[in-house]
Specification:
Elements lengths: L4 H20 L6 E3 L12 E13 L9 E12 L7 H10 L2
Parallel strand pairs: 1-2
Antiparallel strand pairs: 2-3
Length: 98
């Protein structure tokens, strides 16, 4: 499914919202955002932030210049080093959900 410019703008805004909130919480774990260079850290926690496009529907009446509304899903995957338990992952999930 190709992404349209309206969806790309929404995805960019969601990524910025997450990035700003992550920084405001003082978090230093790196985040892998779609379409950006990322090197998975070895032995450290990290996150993957993905925005998946859903179906688009026309949300207004009119000619060629109409409002398109999209459903979508934000997925945040949390990766932690093996053997440290789930405490860190739970704390990070709580922060992400704010």
């Amino acid at each position: 499914m190709s992404r349209d410019s309206g969806f790309d703008a929404a995805a960019t805004a969601l990524e910025k919202h997450h990035r700003d909130g992550w920084a405001a919480e003082g978090r230093t774990e790196p985040v892998d955002y779609d379409g950006r260079d990322f090197t998975t850290p070895d032995g450290a926690a990290w996150l993957r932030f993905t925005v998946e496009e859903g179906e688009g529907d026309r949300a207004s009446l009119g000619g060629d210049d109409y409002l398109q509304r999209h459903d979508g899903t934000v997925i945040v995957e949390i990766y932690i080093p093996w053997g440290i338990g789930t405490g860190l992952a739970t704390r990070l999930a709580d922060i992400v959900s704010k």
